[in-house]
Amino acid sequence: MTTPVENDENRYDFRALEERWQPVWEERQPFRSGREGDERPTKYVLDMFPYPSGDLHMGHAEAYALGDVIARHWVQKGFNVLHPIGWDSFGLPAENAAIKRGIDPYGWTEDNIAQQKASMKRYACSFDWDRVLMTHRPDYYRWNQWLFTRLFERGLAYRKPSLVNWCPKDQTVLANEQVVGGLCERCDTPVTKKKLTQWYFKVTDYADELLDDLETLRDTWPSKVIAMQRNWIGRSYGADVRFRIEGRDEPIDIYTTRPDTLYGATFMVVAADSDLAAELANGADGEVREEFDRYVESVKNASEIDRLSTERPKTGVFLKRYGINPVNGERLPIWASDYVLADYGHGAIMAVPAHDQRDLDFARAMDLPVRVVVDVRDEDGAALPDPAESGIATAGEGVMINSGSLDGLGKAEAIDKVIAELATDGAGERSVNYRLRDWLISRQRYWGTPIPIVHCDACGEVPVPDDQLPVTLPAAEGLDLKPKGQSPLAAATDWVSTTCPRCGGAALRDTDTMDTFVDSSWYYLRYLSVGKTDGPFDPADVARWAPVDQYVGGVTHAILHLLYSRFFTKALRDMGLVDFSEPFSALLNQGMVQMDGSAMSKSRGNLVRLSEQLDEFGVDAVRLTMAFAGPPEDDIDWADVSPGGSAKFLARAWRLARDVTSEPGVDPATGDAELRAHTHRTLKESQELVEGFRFNVVVAKVMELVNVTRKAIDTGAGPADPAVREAAEVVSILLSLFAPYAAEDMWSMLGHEDVALATYPTVDESLLVEETVTCIVQVKGKVRDRLEVPPSIGEDELKELALASDGAQRAIGDAAIRTVIVRAPRLVNIVTA
Ligand code: ANZ
Ligand code: ZN
């Protein structure tokens, strides 16, 4: 046992506590999860790992405080909890900082990690420090490469030329989701397009499964995240329809979700930036060609979201070409516009302005005809105003009109019928479309995992064999890391020239590096077998721990990171490497920490420094404040909370343990019954509240228990009562989830060791008999009886009891009862005739 308090026994001194307990925990490592022969059932709690771009900030402090509540609770509930941490240490922040300062990203990254690690230890997270991983180390990214080659062999990693989002400042490719409002997510530079040959992962092969499996997460993931995943994948059902084009041998396909409206098509639109548009423009006269080129140039920089917006004024160019509607042979003028996307469906549409708002906006802007083919009515059966006049397209359901053989049918029948007719003519068929695109993983940057492919003139793309992995990054020294449109690795000519693993001839290494989302897509598996040198992870470890029971992190990763991890997991399953389909069984998203109503930032001048808060109030007070501020999903405004108040509360709690005079192990059965009841109620409720993520309410319950115990010490049972000891021990056990230093010190004053490993006490249900309240029974306004009832009694039950009571029976006599007014639990008023 450690020596009890040496400092001023009457003062709660958070600095002394931090200094005392940090080295003790460092030595004991209470959260080591890999011990041989540990028979406890397992839980895997995972916090999203940080970028090492500086010291920990308030956002980290919130996330790790909350994740820790869950992890520590499961330890006390008797589980062998795996709660690891590591660093997502490849990526642009490190590289840009290195370029700015002219230093090596490796050293910069390692320094930041060392600083963050020290801060995390001070912050007393229950991390298993034997399992740390860092994605920039070759012993990690070697397995990125290994997995890449496995995906390559299965056709899930491939290269293709395409128009990609390009940030002219960072000089790198961006995924769609890294483009926010047309700007680079990292540096706010307007994003442009560039044609490049890039590596992709074939996420779309799993589109259906990624969508359908969300159903299995319905009860354990936030519904908002599930909706975001669903929208991102964006599955829709419709038809491909073939239109002949005058003066072109090949027909073109369009995708529509409303083939029932084919008779309402009055023009066609092709994506302005598609090859098809360029080709059609070529066949037109020179004037059109010029106008088209100018138009394409002007729309190049618009983001996908802007392009699809109904708010945006519609623009376009008439290509002076015509398509033929397969259902009625009508000639439809073909336009090029940016509101049609090149890489969705077929990059071409039939426009039905009467029933599609964007088509209607375009038709009105360009003075094109509008034809109603669905008779849409309002709730009262009245016809809706003509879209051509009102400017509002009628997208609802109704009876088909002006539609030949479809007239009189409803939407579903019309769709079935027209598809059947198209199919007999070979002019169309059912089809499914997804908004989801394959994942563009190549980056033209230095600080990432080199793509393990060798390009050989004779053999093509050859994966680097396992025994030649890792392909380590060439030293940064001597390389110009400044972005210039091609990867800085290309300048490392010694590194680039190699021999082909297949034919032994001269060959070149691929010079792209992988998107850092690759690193974080499977890191949860590497934690299970950190240090393993003959594979990315051990099947036995996977069987023991995976999948993750509880994942904790920011909602900023609600789409991509989760989608990519889910994709990896499914691909690994199909390779026989794991036997489950979803990586994260449950998900908790914490809110953001703000200051004075807005996100913290240096430029806004409202940045709160974590280190300053820790120095002023202590780790425990900051952690407690994070948990107490509100439900975890809500944002916290640091201006509205009180770490000073938390520190005062902790001092009150700590003094309870100091005041207890009974011996450890004393039987609480003889103690004050009322206090015991309160203690056990707190235990019972807290457990349910922790498991329901209502951490703020748990803190409130502990505060209440501290007050009740203080009263018992000062004016009730007294400090020697065994129930007081029991209460103080429970305070210390519950408090350890939020304020580990104060809790450990209390636990030690109470004569024990390692509060983190204390067993969550068994709730004594016999102590939980409910209190009662007095209910007044009136007859015609006069009090006739009093009943002792549980506060939670229902209205019906209370009414029965009141009517049956002796006093009421006597007062009612033979009179008929007119009404009974029940105000549970305190009043029942019976009105007789
Ligand atoms: C005719 C029509 C009539 C349409 C109507 C809608 C309503 P989702 O549900 O997102 O899959 N579309 C097809 N390809 C497009 C592209 N590359 N860029 C922009 N829009 C495209 O949307 C499918 C609908 O979006 C399709 O159905 C098509 O317009 C349009 F009353 O065809 B529809
Ligand atoms: Zn070769």
UniProtKB/TrEMBL annotation:
| Listed EC numbers | 6.1.1.4
Q: Which residues form the Methionyl/Valyl/Leucyl/Isoleucyl-tRNA synthetase anticodon-binding domain?
A: 672-793
List cellular component terms (GO): cytosol
Q: What class of enzyme is it?
A: ligase
User: What catalytic activity is recorded?
Assistant: tRNA(Leu) + L-leucine + ATP = L-leucyl-tRNA(Leu) + AMP + diphosphate
Q: Which SUPFAM superfamilies match?
A: Anticodon-binding domain of a subclass of class I aminoacyl-tRNA synthetases, Nucleotidylyl transferase, ValRS/IleRS/LeuRS editing domain
Residues the record lists as binding ATP = 602
- Give a Pfam family name: tRNA-synt_1_2
Location (main, coarse): cytoplasm
Alphabetically sorted, this entry's keywords are: Aminoacyl-tRNA synthetase, ATP-binding, Cytoplasm, Ligase, Nucleotide-binding, Protein biosynthesis
Localisation: Cytoplasm
Q: Which family does it belong to?
A: Belongs to the class-I aminoacyl-tRNA synthetase family.
- What protein name applies here? Leucine--tRNA ligase
